[in-house]
Amino acid sequence: MKKIAVLPGDGIGAEIIAQAVRVLRTLEPQGLVLEMAEAPVGGTAYDLSGDPLPKATLDLARSADAILFGSVGGWQWDKLPREKRPEQAILGLRKELKLFANLRPAVIYPELAAASTLKAEVVSGMDVLIIRELTGDIYFGQPRGIRTNAAGEREGFDTMLYAESEIRRIARVGFESALKRNRRLCSVDKANVLETSQLWRDVVTEVAKDYPTVELSHMYVDNAAMQLLRNPRQFDVIVTGNMFGDILSDEASMLTGSIGMLPSASLDANGKGLYEPIHGSAPDIAGKDVANPLATILSAAMLLRYSLDQDAFARRIEGAVSAVLAKGLRTSDIAEKGEPVIGTRAMGDAVVAALAIPG
Ligand code: IPM
Ligand code: MG
Known about the structure:
The protein is α/β, with parallel strands linked by helices. It has helices at 13-26, 43-49, 55-63, 87-96, 120-123, 164-179, 195-208, 221-230, 242-255, 294-306, 311-326, 344-356, and strands at residues 2-9, 34-38, 66-71, 101-107, 127-133, 145-148, 154-157, 184-189, 215-220, 237-240, 263-267, 273-277. The mean pLDDT is 95.
């Protein structure tokens, strides 16, 4: 039996994870056999044990076939020393489990084209897969710190660093993904300024020789940020580093109507993965039953597809989400002005109901 570690985390995490778990449970009578075990993570875990990523939680994540993750963070933990902050839990899980490949698909549902802040004619038909390297770059490079310089002034510094092997393995994920899609890969860097990016570009270009049927292009990150808004349909697969991918994926989410719609998969070299919505813990709306659970429900679908090899069940969940949107059901983040809205739980109910009809 496959084991799923369920880590709800902070803020809206518990509410959205509860709906994704219900959705997975709904598939049990239809033959999906899963063992799910829950553990605290992030600020919630810090409050319980003084550690945002307790050993028991990390052990559970290690022993599981896949991890379903909610979100971490909140103002009440922002003043803690960095190593105790909730964000260290997700960064630690990514690093410890070697989850180097982060897949963030940004697809526009036709029903939501009008919910995007961009004109419907610009975003409709958009289907971009952002592949973000997740365990390197300025996020993890050493040295880093805040020090006092010779002039007695404090200065902060971080190290942007990529080893050739790290670039090569994420580039391969990019090319392999493009092969399964429309065979176009855009590598995003800042090679006009940064040495790290020059190496990135050189290595991606080398790897391209193994994939003659994929059309590779390179784009500077500032231009990519602009092109995503100008004409998002030009992109098929984007591959980029940790920092640029963090920023571009948030940007891409808004093209789809709401950050509340975007799932993600973070995979290791063997397909084990952590699945989480790309949005954060949204403490301002936590506990109010208003958060959109669809990004988390869609993350559960990605979990079934990538780590459990259950593509049919994944498609059932994605189909149920489409059906619910087609029926006009909206949480507040995806509603147009004046449209009636439903809450987190009711959105979960609707997906569960759509799944109960075997398809
Ligand atoms: C994300 C988040 C995280 C990141 C934070 C919570 C550390 O923004 O998953 O995109 O920067 O990677
Ligand atoms: Mg982010």
